[in-house]
Amino acid sequence: MSRAAVQVSAPRAATEERNWERFRVRRPARLIAVRPCLAGMSIRSCQITDISQGGAGFSVHTTIGLPDHYYLNILGLLTRVGCAEVYRNGNRVGVKFIDILDEETVRSIVRADFAGAAK
Question: Over 92-106, what HEC string results?
Fold first, then answer.
């Protein structure tokens, strides 16, 4: 086999870059999901551990019954953020936002978290 035929690639994690700056936070939130056949909504609590304009990471008590798409309601914000799940690892979940958050919204979440931690 010639040397030109061998291709070495870097591991994905080493080549993957994030599009947005990620901030570590500890913010309470709720996950709101529509049940199958529009049979109502399910709501569960979660703790946001990191957030960016494009997505977030959070922990939940259990992922059993959690769908792949839902709304994230960050306590203190008047909006629901549509999410698509990217990964699950135990009780940790990572999502990407359906619509990118504007910078000011992310700043207000980080500031509120910092102000709450300082108390």
Answer: EEEEEECCCCCHHHH
